[in-house]
Amino acid sequence: MATFDSTAVRLKTGEEITVRCAEGNDAEALLEMTRSVIAEGRHHLTKPEEFNATAEEEKNWIHQVSQSPNRLILLAEIRGEIIGMLDFHGGEKKRLRHTGSLGMSVQKNWRNRGVGSVLLAILLKWASNHPELRKICLEVFADNEGAIGLYRKAGFRTEGRLVHHVRMEDGSYTDLIQMCRFV
Ligand SMILES: CC(C)(COP(=O)(O)OP(=O)(O)OC[C@H]1O[C@@H](n2cnc3c(N)ncnc32)[C@H](O)[C@@H]1OP(=O)(O)O)[C@@H](O)C(=O)NCCC(=O)NCCS
């Protein structure tokens, strides 16, 4: 089971947020936040109509992650409201168990205040204390400048570019950038 103690962090704007692992009873609120970010439509592979998880399924997913030693769902919370999440899963095959991938999102009205940086820093600290994890990776749309800026600042470097990997509804294509960093 992955362990991480709930921690309070002050943002550069002065607000204090709590970062903790997701629990079963976060399912509804987490679904709601994920739905609202996906509904923005621009930088996610999943389209709103493809995101149909029920609260029960979300709860089961959270439970499975909480039982795994190399998976983690971090939540950023303020006054009981979930404002950000980071989902990490480590490799399953023995030769990939030193690697893992993350995805993250912050509620629109809470962006650019440091929430994403805090979630990422906490994940990297947890990963660097993990007995197996050595390399953390992610994929990001090539035109997602804000996210790429955040990842670069956190020490991630581009390792690959999947050209025209994403086909948008208007027929245009977007490249997918693979970024990684060692811990
Ligand atoms: C990407 C995301 C998680 C960042 O969260 P956030 O809380 O806004 O991030 P932070 O405020 O901690 O960090 C912002 C950092 O990103 C970088 N950044 C932001 N906008 C930028 C831009 N337009 N160009 C370059 N860098 C930018 C800066 O380094 C900034 O740090 P600074 O404020 O110290 O200069 C958030 O924008 C989000 O949820 N976006 C929608 C979902 C998404 O795209 N997820 C990523 C999928 S891979």
From TrEMBL:
GO terms for molecular function: acyltransferase activity, transferring groups other than amino-acyl groups. CDD domains: NAT_SF. Signal peptide: none annotated. Residues 17-178 form the N-acetyltransferase domain. Pfam families: Acetyltransf_1 (PF00583). It comes from the Bacteria. Keywords: Transferase. InterPro entries: Acyl_CoA_acyltransferase (IPR016181), GNAT_dom (IPR000182). SUPFAM superfamilies: Acyl-CoA N-acyltransferases (Nat). This is RimJ/RimL family protein N-acetyltransferase. The lineage of its organism: Bacteria, Bacillati, Bacillota, Bacilli, Bacillales.
